[in-house]
Here is the input.
Amino acid sequence: MTSTPTLRRLAAADMPAVAALQLVAFAPLFHEPEEILASRLVVAPTLCWGAFQGEGLLAYILSHPWPAASPPPIGTRLAPPPPTDNWFVHDLAIGPAARGLGLGRALVGAAAGAALDFGLSRGDLVAVQGAWRFWEKLGYAAQADLPEPLRAKVAGYGEDARYMTADLAALKVR
Here is the structure.
C-alpha cells in the first residue's frame, strides 16, 4: 500500500464494490445479492463505512439499528426497524490485501461512534468464520444459554456462529 487508507461513509455507488468484496471475504453461505446489502445502507447511511485506497474498496462495515437478540436472517431485505437502542453489525469484511492494517478496528470505531451519536448504546452481532476472537478483543462477549428462537436464528449462520453483545461506550476501538 502506497498511502494511508481513507475511511468514509459508504454511498450507493460503492455497493457493487461491497458486493464484490463480500464474495472474497465470506463463505458462500453468507453471500447476499447487492440489493440486500444496499438495504442496510438505505436504513442506516451513517452507520455503514468503507476503507478506501484511492477509489478501491479495501474493507467495509455494514451496520444498522435493530432490536436486540433478533438478528435478521441471512438474505433479508431490511425495512426501517422499530425504535431501539441496539446497534447490529451485519458485516465487517476485510479484503485479502488489507489484512493486518488495523482497518477492522478502525471501521468498527467509526461506525460505533456514529451509532453512539445516533443514540444507540448497546450492540449485538453474530460472529462467523472464527471472527469471535476479533470481536472479543474489542469488548464483545459471547452469550450462552440463548432462548430457543434466538439459538435457532444463530444456527442459521453456520456451525461456528456465536451471538455476541457489547456496551458501545466500553468498546476498545481506539
Summary: Helices lie at 15-25, 34-43, 103-117, 132-138, 148-155.
